[in-house]
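Q: Could you fold this chain for me?
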Amino acid sequence: MSKSTLESLPNELLLIILSFLSSFDLCQAFLYINNARIQCLLTSSRHLLNVNLMHYDQLHLWLNNNNSHRDRFNSLIDTVVLHNSYACWTLLKYWGKTFKENDQLNVLFPSIKRLIALQAVYCSCYVIKPILIPLVCTNNTLQYLHLISEEPTNRYPEILSELIRHRVSVHTI
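A: Sure. Below is the predicted structure, expressed as structure tokens.
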């Protein structure tokens, strides 16, 4: 019986195995592996960043590590999921600073198409002004905005009014 390696598996099986990892873990483990086939599998699909799936020390190291590895991973992300959590607020604070420092260009997530705010009542005031306004006011790629609340709220019209007041418009809200 011969030994099998990860690289000897067909693409279909590799994709199934890799689907069990978060996008962050996947890119941390395989983004710079010296295998053209795995690189092609990683870069051929877009990835979701859910900060709640990262440990705080991973998030802190990733945000403070200014190198091409982070930039390469960030260019693959097309969806960012925000929660009402300390890790989320840390990411939002950092993301907001990148807009101010770089003339409102989205350098942190240049390929973002979808922004999902879970517990939208809590996220709305922290997302609309520092993140959404620069995203839609410049030449960026945001197309879908999902504001999701766990329970019915009477603040939803207020959130929409705030979006309208700041002229935030995306393809689908």
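A (continued): The chain has a mean pLDDT of 78.
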